[in-house]
Design brief:
One of its GO terms (molecular function) is DNA binding. It comes from Mycena rosella (Pink bonnet). Pfam families: NDC10_II. This is Ndc10 domain-containing protein. By secondary structure, this protein is mainly alpha-helical. Among the domains are: 117 residues, no CATH class; 308 residues, Centromere DNA-binding protein complex CBF3 subunit, domain 2 (hpI Integrase, Chain A, Orthogonal Bundle), CATH 1.10.443.20; 37 residues; 189 residues, no CATH class. The strands form three sheets. The chain has a three-stranded antiparallel sheet. A three-stranded antiparallel sheet has the order 4-5-6, sandwiched between helices. The protein has a two-stranded antiparallel ribbon with strand order 7-8. The longest helix has 33 residues. The N and C termini lie far apart (132 Å).
Amino acid sequence: MTSLGSRGYRGIPYIFFRFPTVSYHAVATFSALAIHQFAALATVIGVIDPVLLPGGSDGHTTNGATTTLPSTSRPSAPADSPPTRPARRFTKTDVASWTASGFAPQRDANETRSQYEDRLTHVSRKVPLAEACTKLGISVPKSANLERLREELAKHWQKEAQPIASTAVTSSGRFPAASRAPFPASSNTPFTAPTNTSSAAATSRAAAAALNTHSTAASDTVLLRRYDVDRANVYELLGYEDDGVDEDEGEDEQVNKGPEDMEEFRRGVRVAAVQRTEGNRHPGGLKTQQAMVKAWNEFTLKTIQAKKIPDAIVDEHSLLMYINFCAERPKRTRKGVDIPGTFIGASHLKKLFFGALRIRKEQDAGDPSLAHRRPASSVIAYDSIKTRMDEALVHERNGLTPEEDAPDIRANTWLSQVKDEDLTKIGFAFLSHRQLRLAIWGHLAWTAQHASGNRGDDFRALKLAELQPTTLLHPNKRTEIYSVINPVYSVFIANLKPEMCPLGAFAFYFHYIYDEKKIIETMKLDYKVNKSWRMIHVLHGQTSPTTPFNEQNMYSLYSNAYKRAGFSSRLKAHLPRHLLGYKQESMGVDPLETSKLGWVRGQTYMDTYAPALPKKAILGAAGYHSDEPYDPIWRKIRVPEQFLLLVCPMAEEMREKVAGAEHLSGAFNQWEMAIELREHFFQCGGAIWQLCPESSIFRLPAFQNTDIRNWMTTGYPSALSVLQAAAGSPIDLRRIENEALHDTLASMRDILEVKEILNRRTAVLTPARGFSASTYHRNGTSISQLSISSLLILIFFQRSRRQLSTMMSPMTDVFPAIQQPDMCWEVWGPKKTLDQFESIQAIWNIYSIGERVSRDDGPIQMKPPLKLVELFFQHHWRTSTSKQERQRFGKVWERFRKIPEWIDHQSTIRRVPSEVVMSELEALRMVEGGTVPRGINWLRTELATQHKAVCSVIFLHYQPSL
């Protein structure tokens, strides 16, 4: 609701007032009848509380505002109204007595509020009233006008007449019951109106304050959180940033702020916050809310007259009545004419319901006590709207509406797909628009919405400064894709089809605004100052680039394109968004990826810092699978250099002006993008020339060049044909790839089969695999004195013959076949230190028998005995190219061989089995009285000490003979 004021024309004052959806311009004198008609209308629709009018109960509160109008002498009222109060006349003596008493209410004389207001109206100077406010302790700003002073004094009279009830606890231990404000009087109540200008101004302000509460709006999420609905998300408020550039302005100095004035101040802050929230909403949401307020006013006008609801407050009773009213009323045309035999749909019912809740939210801001006195949210209300919505869906789907047929069974389902031929015709219809501006606007909106998944109203909100170039990395982590992005991560990349490429559409747009309309000279833009071009909308109105493209014009643009294409759809500007899921499904994109397309705000990290781009969905919208290479063929067509300079020739100069400047990187990138899109301009233009040469976009200045038209006619199609022939048909390429892959797999299968057979038959010949542990029987006889050849033969004779033995070669033939013995240590050498072995038996087995090679399912083979390896290869199997490695191998072998050679030597000279020697060594490891044996490394040291002692005795024994 806009402000309500008064003007004068040739001495005749008139009133200008506008309701949320329709304006009324009335010129009339301030007669009693004119004011009576205006007040009656405002009272009936419920936007002005009757208490604000003469005759209403004093002190009544509506929407949190308590107002009483001053009263003076009134002319005669209409015949159907009661007799008016005669005008009072005051003398100078009366005025002097008032001044002496400080204009205090005359309680002794039983002065009513109306009489007190008459006295105040008679005073025409601010000074005495301001002094009276100071004496009475009323806090008013110094800039308060005469009318404000009168209102404050009248409030003081009301406060003195009706003191606030005490909230102390009663003797019974309970709080006193809160007094319930009476319902306002019926709209039929006769009344009279004041005639002076001051009273009219007060009435104007009261009406404006009441009407303003119905025009503001709040988001659905805040309403759902406020009125107890599950899906709430009010934390998006935290995502907004503080620029830190605003400064508070000075306020009027106030003194002696009282409780009542503070309450009014709080109320004003709440209402101002709601109004600011309204201004921060999307323009489309504001327009929708205006329609919702209009519907609510229509409902209250009828129901208040029928005395079904007391006033315009949104409470449970009025909500239930409103839901029934909306569910039973017919549909209307865009001009507001009823369509008999129809009913509104479930989606419209939902909008009307939430629109009423928004109105209630603003009423709560004006009077918080409404939440307790007259609650709006309840289970009954929500069940009622759900039931009505279900009934509307059933009526529509089953064809129960008298004058409407049931919709197509595939409508609004994933089966309701649009053919590619229809989409192509619609695209050509946009290009065929007779107006150049609308042809560019329509082509840009159609291609960009298909690429980003935005709705029409979202794209209308896009601003020119929000378009920034970037490089998108393909999901294969190798291919870099040039793209245009906006701050909330809607990405536009080159499409598979040049006629559907959004980058080409943006190139047409830049050429139009900079070269055709010369927006820089027209608006005197200075790209060194960000705010000079920051408010320009991509789709803007015809008169001002800072005005968004009208929603109705957008609707008409789509409707005309559908009509020319012979296509029928209930959805107009939202159709690309509706088709997005079907197209993405055909491209194999996950629905979760598709849901991330479009402009979504609310998460600071995802909106500002993290490039959370749904790359698979972006590629799918451009016609590419994520697993195929991204390489549009038409982008390889070479454009002559002289053609490029015809599009935005000032771009290089503008780029140099802002290059390197602080806070101007966005402007620099903007012109960098204009330069990069020049090739897209001619490549996409050449493709459209082949399909739709009568398009209005060819009236652009660059396309008027004869050489360019000749190139688009002959050069472009020939270059494209060569590239397509070189690239080949995707189907033929897939067939060739399949045949080659089939042959390769067959060859690999044959090779693997041969390799498997070879590995199975030669597995025992490799150093990594030895003899079979399951077929080996250990021999307890000492064989240390046998020759190497007889020892090898003996070992093989002791082995039981198995299937594998039929193809095993004698070891005398295997060892000589090894040409690189230096590699044997890594395979056959001991892998553990001495202390890591469990027993002396384990060391002896590796030395004399061989180490087992095991898998998860058990032992499978054995390595050759290290004793035989050392006898045959000597030190050559312990060599290495590195000197340090050779030294390490030597130390490990010297430590390892000490114990098994001692066992072998003792077994030979004493002619006892090796088990006897090993048992003696195990006994040597045990400590007297202990349970844990010493380590094997200690045993090696002990044997070395004993060996040295024996050698010393022998040396001393033979020394005399020397």
